[in-house]
C-alpha cells in the first residue's frame, strides 16, 4: 500500500466557522475539496504522530464516502490508530466521550449539525481536541491558513475498507478499530444518572416521546431509553438515521420539530417530550402542553442538579453564552457559586470546564451540557430532566412554574431572519454599531439603556480576547436586547435578535412571551432597520 502525495490547488473558502467547515455537499464533492481540508487539519496537529484519532459522523449523505477518504489520509499522515464508529456513525457528544474515555489525541466529526442533509443540502467537518471539545481558534486559524497554501495531500493507495462490522484491522502502518458508537456513551450516562430511579419512573404511568428526527440520536435513544431504562417500545420515534434525515430539518425547536410539539399539545399528550438535532448535541424539552425555553432549561437543571448522583455535591459554577437569558445567573447567585458569560459557541466553555470553574453550561440555541464531555449533549439534558421529574414527582410545567416563582421569570424570545444577503447582514450590524454611543441614557421601549456595546470576551483562563461577539443593549430594569450575525449558516447571512425581560411578579409569569416582549421586539426592528434593509416584514423562525 503506497502513500501517494497528490498535488492539489488551494480553495479560498475553507475557513472554519462556529463549528468547523460547513458547505453544500456539491462543494465538498469537488475534486480534492475534502482532501485539502483534511490535510490542513492534520498539518495543524503536528504532534499527531502515532496517536489515536476518533472518527464518525451523523450519517448524512456523503458521510460514508468521507469516512473512507479520511481513513486513508489518516493512515498516510502518521496517525497510530483510528477508532471509527460502526457504519461511520457517532454523535457529537459521543465523539467527545470516546476521545476522553480512550485518551485519544483528537477526533473528526462529520456533520452539519441541524442543517438539512442530502445531495442538495449540507455537509460539514470539524476537529475536536484531546479534551473532547471543539478545536480552539488557534487551531482553526492554523487549519484555515494551511488550506490557503496547500500544495499536496497524502493518501494511502488502497481500496475501501469495511466499516460495518466491529473489529480491528491494519491500514498500512495504522490500526483501525471499528467500534460500537453507542456503548461508551451509554456507559457514561449510566455513571452520571441513577438508572434504577429512571427505570422506576418508566415502570409507572409516565410516558414520553423522543423524536430523533431521522438523525444520529436514534440508536442512542433506543438503546438508553427503551432497552436500558424500559420506556415502552415506540417511545423513540424517527429513530433510524437516514442519509437525508427523511427530508426534514433536524433542528429541535417549535418550528422544525412541529409534529412533536403538536403531539405534546394534544388532548392525549404524553408527560414529556424531547428532540435532538442532526448530530445529537442539541435538545428541546417539552412537558404536557408546555415548552421549556432553553435558557430556562439550563437554570432549572442547575437549581435541581443535586438530584443527579454525579452532581450530588453541588456545582462549581455555571456558564452561559452571552445571548442566553440571565436565568442561570440568578440561580448561581442564590447557590453562591460563580457564573460566567461567554460568546456564542460551545468552544468558549472548554477552558472553564477544563479548569474546573464550572460544572454546567448552556446556550439559548438549544444546547445544555456539563463537565462530563466537552460538547453540548442532547440526551444528557433529556436524562437530567427525567431525573428531576423522577425525584420530584412533579410535571415539567409544575417544575418550571415553581422555578419562576422562586427565581423570577426571564421572558425570552429569539427572532431569526435567515438567509438574507450577506451585505444586508453587514449593513444591519453597522447601522446598529454607529448608534451605540448615543443610546446610553435614552429611554427606549419604556426602559433606560444602561449599557450599549459590542460584546468582547477575555477568557479568564488563557487571557485570549474575542471581540465583535454581538451587540447588546442592557436596560436598567434587567431587560436586554441583543443582535448578532449567526456564525453557522451556509447561505447568505442570518440575523438573530434576542429579547429578554425579567418578571418577578408571580401573577404575571404565565403570559405569552411574544406579548410581554412586544415593545422590545419593535425596538429591535426599528434600531436595526431590518425591514428597510431586507424587505422582510417578519422573522423566518421564532423560538
Ligand atoms: C452551534 C454551536 C453553538 C452555537 C450555535 C448557534 O450549534 O455549537 O455553540 O450556539 O451553533 O450559533 P449561531 O452562530 O448560528 O447563532
Ligand atoms: Zn448539533
Automatic annotation (TrEMBL):
Cofactor requirements of the protein: Mg(2+)
Coiled-coil residue spans: none
EC number(s) stated in the UniProt entry for this protein: 5.4.2.2
GO BP field: carbohydrate metabolic process
Record keyword Protease present: no
Catalytic reaction annotation: alpha-D-glucose 1-phosphate = alpha-D-glucose 6-phosphate
Record Pfam families: PGM1_C_vert_fung (PF24947), PGM_PMM_I (PF02878), PGM_PMM_II (PF02879), PGM_PMM_III (PF02880)
SUPFAM superfamilies associated with the record: Phosphoglucomutase, C-terminal domain, Phosphoglucomutase, first 3 domains
Keyword Protein transport: no
UniProt keyword annotations, A-Z: Isomerase, Magnesium, Metal-binding, Phosphoprotein
Database matches in InterPro entries: A-D-PHexomutase_a/b/a-I (IPR005844), A-D-PHexomutase_a/b/a-I/II/III (IPR016055), A-D-PHexomutase_a/b/a-II (IPR005845), A-D-PHexomutase_a/b/a-III (IPR005846), A-D-PHexomutase_C_sf (IPR036900), A-D-PHexomutase_CS (IPR016066), Alpha-D-phosphohexomutase_SF (IPR005841), PGM (IPR045244)
Domain (Alpha-D-phosphohexomutase alpha/beta/alpha) ranges: 14-151, 185-286, 295-407
One annotated GO molecular function: phosphoglucomutase activity
Record-level GO cellular component terms: cytosol
Protein family membership: Belongs to the phosphohexose mutase family.
Name under which the protein is recorded: phosphoglucomutase (alpha-D-glucose-1,6-bisphosphate-dependent)
Originating organism: Acidithiobacillus marinus
Amino acid at each position: 500500500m503506497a502513500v501517494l502525495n497528490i498535488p492539489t490547488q488551494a480553495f479560498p473558502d475553507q475557513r472554519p466557522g462556529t463549528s468547523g467547515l460547513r458547505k453544500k455537499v456539491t462543494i465538498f464533492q469537488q475534486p480534492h475539496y475534502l482532501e485539502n481540508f483534511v490535510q490542513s487539519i492534520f498539518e495543524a496537529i503536528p504532534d499527531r504522530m502515532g496517536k489515536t484519532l476518533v472518527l464518525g459522523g451523523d450519517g448524512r449523505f456523503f458521510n460514508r464516502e468521507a469516512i473512507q477518504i479520511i481513513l486513508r489520509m489518516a493512515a498516510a499522515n502518521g496517525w497510530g490508530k483510528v477508532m471509527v464508529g460502526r457504519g461511520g456513525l457517532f454523535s457529537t457528544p459521543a465523539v467527545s466521550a470516546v476521545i476522553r474515555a480512550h485518551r485519544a489525541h483528537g477526533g473528526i466529526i462529520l456533520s452539519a449539525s441541524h442543517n438539512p442533509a442530502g445531495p442538495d443540502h449540507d455537509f460539514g467537518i470539524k476537529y475536536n481536541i484531546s479534551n473532547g471539545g471543539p478545536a480552539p481558534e488557534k487551531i482553526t486559524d492554523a487549519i484555515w491558513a494551511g488550506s490557503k497554501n496547500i500544495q499536496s495531500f497524502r493518501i494511502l493507495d488502497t481500496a475501501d475498507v469495511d466499516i460495518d462490522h466491529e473489529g480491528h484491522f491494519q491500514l498500512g502502518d495504522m490500526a483501525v478499530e471499528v467500534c460500537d458508537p453507542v456503548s461508551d456513551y451509554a456507559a457514561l450516562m449510566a455513571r452520571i444518572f441513577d438508572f434504577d430511579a429512571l427505570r422506576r419512573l418508566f415502570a409507572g404511568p409516565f410516558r414520553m416521546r423522543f423524536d430523533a428526527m431521522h438523525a444520529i440520536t436514534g440508536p442512542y435513544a433506543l438503546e438508553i431509553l427503551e432497552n436500558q431504562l424500559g420506556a415502552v417500545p415506540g417511545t423513540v420515534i424517527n429513530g433510524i438515521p437516514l442519509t437525508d434525515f427523511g427530508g426534514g430539518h433536524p433542528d429541535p425547536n417549535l418550528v422544525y420539530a412541529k409534529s412533536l410539539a403538536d403531539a405534546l399539545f394534544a388532548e392525549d399528550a404524553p408527560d414529556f417530550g424531547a428532540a435532538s438535532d442532526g448530530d445529537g448535541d442539541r435538545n428541546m424539552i417539552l412537558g404536557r402542553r408546555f415548552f421549556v425555553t432553553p435558557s430556562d432549561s439550563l437554570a432549572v437543571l442547575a437549581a435541581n442538579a443535586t438530584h443527579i448522583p454525579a452532581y450530588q455535591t453541588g456545582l462549581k459554577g455555571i456558564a452561559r453564552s452571552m445571548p442566553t437569558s440571565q436565568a442561570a445567573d440568578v440561580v448561581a447567585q442564590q447557590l453562591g457559586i460563580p457564573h460566567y458569560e461567554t460568546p456564542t459557541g460551545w468552544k468558549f466553555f472548554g477552558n472553564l470546564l477544563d479548569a474546573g470553574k464550572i460544572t454546567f453550561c448552556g446556550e439559548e440555541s438549544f444546547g445544555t451540557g456539563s463537565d462530563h464531555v466537552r460538547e453540548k449533549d442532547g440526551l444528557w439534558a433529556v436524562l437530567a430532566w427525567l431525573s428531576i421529574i423522577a425525584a420530584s414527582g412533579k410535571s415539567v410545567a409544575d417544575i418550571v412554574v415553581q422555578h419562576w416563582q422562586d427565581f423570577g421569570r426571564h421572558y425570552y424570545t429569539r427572532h431569526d431572519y435567515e438567509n438574507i444577503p450577506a451585505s444586508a447582514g453587514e449593513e444591519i450590524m453597522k447601522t446598529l454599531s454607529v448608534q451605540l454611543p448615543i443610546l446610553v441614557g435614552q429611554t427606549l421601549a419604556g426602559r433606560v439603556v444602561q449599557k450599549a456595546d459590542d460584546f468582547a470576551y477575555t477568557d479568564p483562563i488563557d487571557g485570549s480576547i474575542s471581540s465583535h461577539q454581538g451587540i447588546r443593549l442592557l436596560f436598567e430594569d434587567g431587560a436586554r436586547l441583543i443582535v448578532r450575525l449567526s456564525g453557522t449558516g451556509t447561505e447568505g447571512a442570518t440575523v438573530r435578535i434576542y429579547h429578554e425581560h425579567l418578571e418577578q411578579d408571580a401573577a404575571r409569569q404565565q403570559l405569552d412571551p411574544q406579548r410581554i416582549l412586544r415593545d422590545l421586539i419593535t425596538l429591535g426592528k426599528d434600531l436595526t432597520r431590518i425591514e428597510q434593509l431586507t424587505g422582510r416584514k417578519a422573522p423566518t423562525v421564532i423560538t
